[in-house]
């Protein structure tokens, strides 16, 4: 018999005592929002009840990136689905400058939800996989008012994290600290069904993911690692490597969780003052926890990503994650060049 996401979460709550009912409710709501986003993504240029979803929204986010209509729609779907349930204190998103506190007309809960509503949005028009990434923290301060400071907790403090990839299938991937589970959306039934449990990433790999067009801007340790991969059988690694780059982190991470690999979006010289392109709080932290829960590793080249002490909601970070032995090798090249 198939196991729905609802049943999986009830079992995590009841039998394993791992998640409180409020967190279960929160995750159900996030999953419902992802179903709506999946529906809008599927409709594409046909448009849905959410309106015309293709093209630019004519605005920029706090990071100066052009927002697509679907970025804004996905953001609104997540906010509207989550603000009235009573389980959240506040939300934060890649697409919003500052935090969204649950309005006074609704009860306030103790959780904080962060998300990248639509990751890989440069792929919207070209019908390539995109996704939603989310991370859940608990408000630890006893202050009545929730502030941005409440969100600035290291990734080790996450109580749930996951993503939903909108590809040929819509798949929700989740951890509550008890391994990684994958759920495929059954469109006829309208529910997410457990399709893989205890996901494990092979420790070794022959596949890397990096945007090679940035090669001339990389730092020496990254260049050395990729040069060695490219040298193949005749080089120091003694084996040929394959390369993939989807330009949707969700899709690249999904491949790595499925068959191993290493993903890198390192610091580079294009904008030296920025530590990287990807954002720590709602991209790198949730993905790093999923990867670690599946037996992989995630660092910024020097430190474990989950242990970084955040100082800003939208701060960026260099990301190296995936198969353990490869991530450790790249990290070693950074620490002892
Ligand atoms: P986004 O959140 O604005 O979509 O940006 C993040 C995306 C990642 O999904 C992906 O790995 C990366 O940006 C691709 O960047 P590039 O186009 O520089 O290769
Ligand atoms: Mg993103």
Describe this structure in words.
With 337 residues, the chain is an alpha+beta fold. It folds into two domains: 5-196, Fructose-1,6-Bisphosphatase, Chain A, domain 1 (2-Layer Sandwich), CATH 3.30.540.10; 207-335, 3-Layer(aba) Sandwich (D-Maltodextrin-Binding Protein, domain 2). Helices cover 29% and strands 24% of the residues. It contains eight helices and 17 strands. The chain has helices at 5-14, 21-43, 69-82, 148-151, 220-230, 249-259, 280-293, 324-335; strands at residues 56-60, 66-68, 88-93, 100-101, 111-119, 130-138, 160-166, 170-175, 180-186, 191-196, 207-209, 242-243, 262-265, 278-279, 297-299, 316-317, 319-322. The strands form four sheets. The protein has an eight-stranded mixed sheet, sandwiched between helices. Strand 8 (170-175) and strand 9 form a beta hairpin. Helix 1 packs antiparallel against helix 2 (21-43) and helix 5 (220-230) packs across helix 8. The chain is globular. The termini are far apart. The structure holds 2,5-anhydro-1,6-di-O-phosphono-D-mannitol and magnesium ion. The site of magnesium ion has 4 residues, from strand 5.
What is the structure about, briefly put?
The protein is α+β, with helices and mostly antiparallel strands and 337 residues long.
């Amino acid at each position: 018999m198939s196991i729905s996401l609802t049943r999986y979460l009830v079992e995590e709550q009841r039998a394993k005592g791992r998640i409180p009912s409020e967190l279960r409710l929160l995750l159900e709501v996030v999953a419902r929002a992802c179903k709506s986003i999946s529906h809008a993504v599927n409709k594409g240029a046909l448009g849905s009840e959410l309106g015309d979803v293709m093209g630019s929204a004519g605005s920029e986010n706090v990071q100066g990136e052009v927002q697509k209509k679907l970025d804004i729609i996905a953001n609104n779907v997540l906010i509207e689905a989550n603000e009235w349930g009573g389980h959240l204190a506040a939300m934060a998103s890649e697409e919003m400058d500052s935090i969204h506190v649950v309005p006074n007309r609704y009860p306030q809960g103790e959780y904080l939800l962060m998300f990248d509503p639509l990751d890989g949005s440069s792929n919207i028009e070209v019908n390539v996989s995109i996704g939603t990434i989310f991370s859940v923290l608990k408000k630890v301060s006893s202050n009545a008012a929730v502030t941005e400071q409440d969100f600035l907790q290291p990734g080790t403090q996450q109580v749930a994290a996951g993503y939903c990839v909108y590809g040929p299938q819509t798949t929700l991937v989740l951890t509550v600290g008890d391994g990684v589970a994958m759920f495929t959306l059954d469109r006829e039934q309208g529910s997410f069904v457990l399709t893989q449990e205890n996901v494990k990433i092979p420790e070794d790999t022959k596949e890397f993911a990096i945007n090679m067009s940035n090669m001339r801007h990389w730092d020496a340790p990254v260049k050395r690692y990729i040069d060695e991969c490219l040298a193949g059988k005749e080089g120091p690694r003694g084996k040929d490597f394959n390369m993939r780059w989807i330009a949707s982190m969700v899709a690249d991470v999904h491949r790595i969780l499925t068959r191993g690999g290493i993903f890198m979006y390192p610091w580079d010289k294009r904008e030296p003052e920025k530590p990287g392109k990807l954002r720590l709080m709602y991209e790198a932290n949730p993905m790093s926890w999923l990867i670690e829960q599946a037996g992989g590793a995630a660092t910024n080249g020097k430190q474990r990503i989950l242990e970084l002490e955040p100082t800003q909601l939208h701060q960026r970070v260099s990301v190296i994650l995936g198969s353990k032995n490869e991530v450790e090798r790249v990290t070693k090249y950074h620490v002892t060049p």
